[in-house]
UniProtKB/TrEMBL annotation:
Keywords: Aminotransferase, Transferase. Its cofactor is pyridoxal 5'-phosphate. One of its GO terms (molecular function) is transaminase activity. It holds the Pfam family Aminotran_1_2. Signal peptide: none annotated. This is Aminotransferase class I/II-fold pyridoxal phosphate-dependent enzyme. InterPro entries: Acyl_CoA_acyltransferase, Aminotransferase_I/II_large, AON_synthase_class-II, PyrdxlP-dep_Trfase, PyrdxlP-dep_Trfase_major, PyrdxlP-dep_Trfase_small. It comes from the Bacteria.
Length: 839
């Protein structure tokens, strides 16, 4: 199989987080000597705190503090034993109080992450199955990886998609005993709720369905005794529901709690629940603080605290509803999300709010899809109405300026989040004075600052001319070839072939639309040129082969399973730098921004699932532009190029190789050449074409390193009739039938580049006769015969190509998807493969 370098998810996340850190909005440190819950000091600046998850403010309650201090004085800083052996003196009291809250005996865990690791592998039996909401908390998804070692099916659905959930239930009904659907009660980013009533109706319809809720963001501020959002809806915990709550966050202490009505199951979890058995228990201070908080939850005071927070939530919500700000899931939870779509807009907005004295959270990938970036604002009882009002006014004032500063627009944000309502445009060019009199009323003296707002001039340049076409036939051949003519198979003639070859209404997976962009300055000088194709891609195209093999099994039943409609730079047939940018031109960056704007418009018109800008060499300036516009950088397979073919003999070619490669060439390649009859043809007979196609299928079916759709034979029939293509055929000598055992499908790009685009092999002879290496060598010889100065060897098998003198060039792509579902689903498949292999 061909080996390629795959993208590492951790590198992608690191790229995003590092970018946010450079903008000064992440990895910050609080500098206060004393915290009060209402304000924070960061980098010497006091700010109102609108980023907490302690919604009731109990972490600052003196009763919890005093209880923790007393416990440390009486019992020490920790009780270093597993709870399986013996619990510290306070545990029993805490368990009794939690039971009084819920009416159910609880299990207390160190935290929710360790709790899920303890509970999920115990609750879910080998004969069960699991369905994950793709936005369920990471700690739940991570715990489910342990199930896959045992062969338990773990499926995933798009967020709160009940139709997809029901399809998965039907799929698992005959395969599983219980079917567990796992979701959050309140989701931490958008503040939206699980559709609990609808889920309970599904439980009535499918008796196998059980529900597992992580309600840590619904705790305390909602429900009788603060038992959370889920129980506020259900009132009582059914037998088929398992509920996780938290003793941290809004509860004000530490730890988590599991509730289920099955007493026997509770005992199993206690007896052997992984971290419950082998991890240390909660520290005495944490248990004591939780007891003090439980006392509050069991008293009428909890209702008063909830009402206080609810009043502030409703006040904040009422102010926001009077604005044109694109708030997502505006409900009665304490979590509010302001959509910005582009990361750069979020960074600029956070910076502006920081400067005004308001701390808020940027919400970025992977917590949300890259193009669903935004600002997460959370309320607590610490927040007062004066600063709440001031925050809304600051948001309303600065949001259009952050949009303008980052080249964004309200329409783009609405489109990114699927907000269909007509929203009046925000005025961005009027000079406005920030209501400093309001700030003076609500901001303490130590928080006041002098703020000067300068007029922000926007210069709209009209020096660029865009040509957009849907066929290469409408673009001047000479001009296109001067700009992009020496690259891969996408000179003018090559694109004419591709348009003809991939117009396949009978094959939706190989039916593409073409879109061309040429941007020039007013003097006609090209600044940027590229093309895109729109069609179906397999979501695992660049995933590890192990994932593709799993998905191909499912595609035997559904050939289009986990595929997406992609607007991609270049095409799946072509490889190389598909985008010409005149970087020395003063309007280069503006041309890139114009292209991105045009592509985004087309993306939404086509209702595509993903945009891919691909095959760029590493460039920090481009990286900054694309990241700030909401694209994720991923590593692409390295590409292989030979640029000097001006040798006059095999000996001279051999001498051009490194010492090690020369030995490889003289022992592993050159001696085997005599085993073949080598024929070069511009046209194939029908019989030869059928043989060639079978050899292509041999390679395609065994190689999932780059998992694209199989090309139909019609593509090769059109190739055979096109003057730009030729075929290098290898027939094995000394066989009765002199069989065709290898073929290269090669494109001649203008008078400069030779492109061995596809390969076919008979694997019965591949190893014995070094068939693959011989085909590569024959391509090099043929390029020299044609006096072509460059060979575009494409991706994969870089080790073999390097030995023949190829230069290896790292490439990256930038992607933008409507959601993270496919990437997260493939992440679960990759983890499953690793757990099975023991890595």
């Amino acid at each position: 199989m061909a080996k390629i370098k795959h993208n590492n998810f951790i590198d992608t996340v690191d790229e995003v987080i590092s970018g946010a850190k450079k903008e000064g909005v992440l990895h910050l440190y609080v500098e206060d000597e004393v915290l009060n819950g209402r304000t924070l000091q960061i980098r010497g600046k006091k700010m109102f705190h609108f980023g907490t998850t302690g919604y009731l403010g109990l972490e600052q309650d003196n009763r919890l503090k005093e209880a923790a201090i007393t416990a440390i004085q009486k019992y020490g800083t920790q009780f270093p034993l597993s709870k399986t052996y013996i619990s510290n003196p306070l545990y029993s009291e805490l368990e009794n109080k939690i039971e009084a809250m819920y009416g159910i005996s609880p299990i207390i865990t160190k935290n929710s992450t360790l709790g899920h690791l303890a509970v999920i592998p115990t609750v879910v039996r080998d004969e069960d199955g699991v369905i994950l909401d793709h936005q369920v908390h990471w700690s739940v998804q991570n715990a489910c990886q342990l199930l896959k070692i045992r062969g338990i099916p773990v499926e995933m659905i798009r967020h709160s998609n009940l139709d997809m959930l029901e399809d998965k239930i039907k799929f698992l009904t005959t395969r599983c005993n219980k079917i567990w659907y796992m979701a959050d009660g309140v989701y931490s980013m958008f503040g939206d709720y699980a559709p609990i009533r609808e889920l309970m109706e599904l439980c009535k319809k499918y008796s196998q369905l059980h529900l597992y809720f992580d309600d840590v963001h619904g705790m305390s501020w909602k429900g009788k005794n603060g038992t959370g959002y889920v129980l506020d809806i259900l009132k009582e915990l059914p037998e088929n529901v398992v509920l996780f709550g938290t003793l941290s966050k809004t509860f004000g202490a530490s730890g988590a709690t599991l509730l289920c009505t099955d007493s026997r199951l509770r005992e199993k979890i206690k007896n052997f629940g992984g971290p419950l058995t082998f991890s240390a228990q909660l520290e005495p201070a944490s248990v004591a603080a939780a007891i003090a908080s439980a006392d509050i939850h069991l008293s009428p005071e909890i209702t008063s605290l909830q009402c206080d927070l609810s009043e502030k939530i409703e006040y904040f919500k009422s102010l926001l509803e009077k604005t044109t700000l694109p708030m997502i899931a505006l409900n009665n939870s304490p979590v509010f999300f302001l959509g910005t779509a582009m990361p750069l807009t979020a960074y600029k907005m956070v910076q502006r709010l920081f400067n005004e004295g308001f701390y808020v959270n940027p919400a970025i990938y992977p917590a949300v899809p890259i193009k669903n970036t935004g600002i997460r604002t959370t309320l607590s009882r610490h927040n007062q109405k004066e600063e709440i009002k001031a925050l809304v006014e600051a948001m309303e004032y600065h949001y259009p300026k952050a949009l303008e500063e980052s080249g964004n627009s309200l329409n783009k944000v609405n489109t990114a989040f699927g907000i269909m309502e007509t929203i009046l445009p925000i005025e961005t060019h009027k000079k406005k004075n920030f209501p400093s009199d309001v700030m003076k009323k609500c901001v303490p003296d130590d928080l006041r600052q002098t703020i000067t707002f300068s007029e922000e001039n926007v210069e709209i340049k009209t020096d660029l001319v865009l040509q957009y076409e849907t066929s290469i036939e409408k673009i001047n051949k000479k001009n296109w070839n001067e700009i992009l003519g020496r690259r891969s198979t996408f000179d003018w003639e090559g694109l004419s072939f591709l348009e003809n070859a991939f117009t396949n209404p009978n094959y939706p997976e190989n039916n593409w639309d073409f879109h061309y962009y040429v941007i020039k300055d007013k003097n006609g000088i090209p600044v940027l040129a590229t093309f895109f194709t729109y069609g179906l891609w397999k979501d695992d195209m660049l995933a590890p082969e192990s994932i593709s093999l799993q998905l191909e099994e499912k595609r035997k039943q559904n050939p289009l399973y986990l595929t997406s409609k992609v607007l991609g730079m270049g095409s799946l047939f072509t490889e190389g730098n598909h985008c010409y940018i005149n970087k020395a031109h003063p309007l280069a960056e503006e041309a890139i921004m114009l292209l991105l704007e045009q592509v985004e418009t087309l993306y939404h018109q086509l209702n595509a699932d993903m945009v891919v800008l691909r095959d760029f060499e590493v460039d920090e300036k481009l990286n900054r532009i694309f990241h700030n516009q909401g694209f994720l950088k991923i590593s692409m397979p390295e590409t292989c190029i030979i640029e000097n073919t001006q040798w006059s003999s095999i000996e001279e070619f051999s001498a051009s190789l490194s010492t090690r490669s020369r030995k490889h060439f003289t022992k592993e390649i050159l001696p085997f050449e005599q085993a073949f009859d080598i024929v070069i043809k511009n046209h194939l007979t029908n019989e030869e074409l059928e043989q060639a196609y079978k050899l292509y299928l041999n390679v395609k079916n065994i190689n999932h390193a780059i998992n694209t759709f199989t090309y139909p034979i019609e593509v090769f029939q059109k190739m055979e009739k096109h003057s730009g293509w030729e075929f290098i055929l290898l027939y094995l000598k000394n066989e009765i039938s002199n069989p065709l055992v290898g073929i290269l499908f090669c494109y001649k790009n203008t008078s400069h580049t030779y492109v061995p685009a596809l390969i076919g092999m008979d694997y019965d002879y591949a190893k014995e006769f070094q068939l693959y290496r011989q085909l590569l060598f024959q391509a090099i010889k043929r390029a020299r015969e044609l006096n072509l100065n460059k060979i575009d060897f494409g991706v994969s098998a870089t080790f073999e190509k390097r030995k023949l003198g190829a230069t290896i060039i790292p490439k990256v792509a930038y992607i933008q998807a409507r959601d993270n579902f496919s990437m997260e689903l493939m992440g679960t498949l990759q983890n499953e493969d690793k757990t099975r292999s023991g890595n």
